[in-house]
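The data are quoted verbatim for completeness:
=====
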Amino acid sequence: MTKNDKRPRNESGEYVQEHTEEAVLEVMKPLEPYMTSEIADKLDWSRRSAYNVLSRLLENDEIRKKKPEARRVIWIRPE
């Protein structure tokens, strides 16, 4: 850990999860398609963090994923 690491920690000293599924769902309008970079930009997260949370939501059947091209993923929140 560096001296500049200001991430919040719980009482046990573990990092508190800052990138939550709830935050993503709050910015996603139902039936609106989103790219990973759009979610990352809306939440001021890295693309990797956004992709990880979106993947967890997909695993829990809370959102859908479309892959129209080899390097493009579209995420959709159902109604």
